[in-house]
Amino acid sequence: MPDIATLFLDAAPYRLRPLLPEDATALHNLVNDWEVVRMLSRLPFPYPRDLADDWIAATLAMHRAKQGYHFAILDNQNRFMGCVGLRVETLPQIGRVGMLGYWVGRPYWKQGIATKAATRLAHWALANLDITRLRATVAQDNAASATVLERTGFKAIGTDRQMFIARGTDHPVTVYEMTRTDINMPQTLPATRKLVLVSAAALVDTEGRVLLARRPEGKSLAGLWEFPGGKMEPGESAEAALIRELHEELGIDVSRGCLAPFTFASHSYTTFDLLMPLFLCRRWSGTPTGREGQALAWVHVKDLRDYPMPEADLPFIALLQETL
Ligand SMILES: Nc1nc2c([nH]c(=O)n2[C@H]2C[C@H](O)[C@@H](COP(=O)(O)OP(=O)(O)OP(=O)(O)O)O2)c(=O)[nH]1
Ligand SMILES: [Mg+2]
Question: Is the ipTM of this structure higher than 0.90?
Answer without folding.
Answer: yes
